[in-house]
Amino acid sequence: MLINRRGMAVLAALVSVLACAPTDEPPPRAAAARHAGAPGIGDTDFPRDGNGGYDVANYSLTVDYTPASKRLTGVTKIRAKTTQDLSSFNLDLTGLDVAKVTVDGDPARFSRKGGELTVTPAAPLVADSPFTAEISYSGTPAPAKDTANLGTYGFIPTADGAFVASEPNGSKTWFPSNDHPADKATFDFTVTVPAGLTVVANGEQTAPPATSGGRTTYRWSERHPMATYLATATIGKFQVREGRSGGGIPTYAAVDPRFKTSLDKVYNLSGEITDYWSTVFGPYPFSSTGGVVDDYSAGYALENQTKPLYGGFDPDEGIIAHELAHQWFGDSLTIKRWKDLWLNEGFATYAEWLWSEHKGKKSADAIFKDFYNRGAQDPVWAYPPGRAKPGDLFNESVYTRGGMTLHALRKAVGDPAFFKLLKTWTAQHRYGNVTTRQFVDLAENVSGKDLDPLFDAWLFQPRRPTLA
Ligand code: TRP
Ligand code: ZN
Questions:
Q1: What pLDDT shows up at residue 191?
Q2: Which atom number of ligand 1 is nearest to the Cα of residue 302?
Q3: pLDDT of amino acid 29
Q4: Which label site among 22, 185, 292, 314 has the fewest CB atoms less than 10 Å from its CB?
């Protein structure tokens, strides 16, 4: 019988699967190596981001931070489940020194290379089984700096604390994690800082801050699945206002004293805008809304889950509308691969236009036309937003042309189908991971139209689409 190259490969794969069947014999070295968890989760644009072989359910972070010395001491407990047999598995962590790792309570061997922390449990882990890992570490966190257009991100020390904004892969600068949005998990935070400082993390405070020996411990918990890049424990002097939005959503606003005149505005607008988005995008997915203004001059904002973070400026309603739209598009519905980033940024940008329209200012259609009329040579037309490039992820096209794609879609299917689509999208994939293909399929289902030509022209071609 003739076996072609493909057949040989299939046969070889079959043999290797059989070789992995459990036996009483200790596995030979080659078999153990085959059971190593992959150093990346499978995002070909970011091959070392995240890891393979397990799925995290919960991170329990204990962090002690002193701004004066910039020293961080941490213990991260991870509750996870294996997705394959694992002789070893990786976590992502940069800088910082690891003192100890245990798996299911037993000491484990570990090694470091680049951003990878490889953990070898005393005994291999079996597929589809829960396990826990606990990592004790310390050091001076250094933020990530990317040569692309990402700027500085991660755990960024400030004069009075830290500004923590980790998109796309900066969580590894402050805790060991499966640092890729494809693996979402719940989070518990126990953060201790010098008394007088405030810690603002995601979700809700589960206990009042407790001070002893001049240090205060804050406890926060995010009960809904969250991508690692949305986790924050921003530290500093903050003025806080808490209450409920008109629609009854718990609202938390915190501002650095330098922005004390922004507190009421951030509080009120965050509540008002979250209420409005709940009528347009569907029920608010999380336990509270709000916003945090720190004195670090990032010049940008990040949609940290439940608590968007504004870096060093007084946010206007456009950017607040943008970051709060991300609570649905990005945070509740999270991309599986970075190339689909327009599902976050295109939607959040279009939300700014919808907010303007809602307020009786410029209509989305007028804003769309302004961008379109910048001309066919505008750089956004050379960059297809449906495939965000790893070296230029946050290109303006992903935002603006991504937003224009949604407006072109709205024009093609009409308002009733378009707004029904938005609500169906957020309902179907609440707390999950999504792809562009899924959105296109749903748009076609809801509208009953063939939309491949429209999406192809707007998302994937390196030229300006013609208008229908
Ligand atoms: N997602 C942010 C926004 O458009 C922008 C952003 C990308 C960012 N990477 C970041 C912000 C890192 C802070 C840190 O709203
Ligand atoms: Zn955004």
A1: 99
A2: 11
A3: 59
A4: 22
Exposed, middle or buried: residue 468 (CB in 10 Å: 0-12, 13-18, 19+)? exposed
Q: Which residues of the chain, if any, have pLDDT below 70?
A: 1-33, 147-149
392-405 tens-digit pLDDT: 999 999 999 999 99
C-alpha–C-alpha distance, residues 6 and 369, integer Å? 52
Atom of ligand 1 nearest to the CA of 393: 7
- pLDDT value of position 34: 79
CA–centroid distance, residue 350 to ligand 2 (Å): 10
Produce one character per residue of 250-266: b if its CB has 16 or more CB atoms within 10 Å, e if not: bbbbbbbeebeebbebb
What count of residues does the chain have? 468
Nearest to 292 by CA among 217, 219, 218, 233: 233
Q: Whose CA is nearest to atom 7 of ligand 1?
A: 167
Ligand of minimum distance to the alpha carbon of 155:
1
Instruction: Identify the helix (H) or strand (E) that includes residue 95.
Output: none
Q: Which amino acid, one-letter code, is at 456? A: D
3-state class (DSSP) for residue 123? coil
Helix (H, G, I), strand (E, B) or coil at 467: coil
Secondary structure string (H, E, C) spanning 314-359: CCCHHHHHHHHHCCCECCCEEECCHHHCHHHHHHHHHHHHHHHHHC
- Residue (of 134, 108, 104) closest to 119 by Cα position: 108
Nearest ligand to the C-alpha atom of residue 344: 2
Task: Sort strands 185-194 and 54-66 into parallel, antiparallel or unpaired.
Answer: parallel
Query: Are the C-beta atoms of residues 62 and 190 closer than 8 Å to each other?
Result: yes
Structural tokens at position 361:
């200012």
State how far the alpha carbon of 99 is from the alpha carbons of 75, 83, 134, 338, in Å: 10, 27, 11, 32
Compute, in angstroms, the gap from residue 67 CA to the centroid of ligand 1. Answer: 24
Taking CB atoms and a 6 Å cutoff, what residues make up the pocket around ligand 1?
150, 153, 165, 167, 300-303, 322-323, 345, 394
- Cα separation, 92 vs 410, whole angstroms: 40
Distance CA(202)–CA(61), nearest Å, equals 12
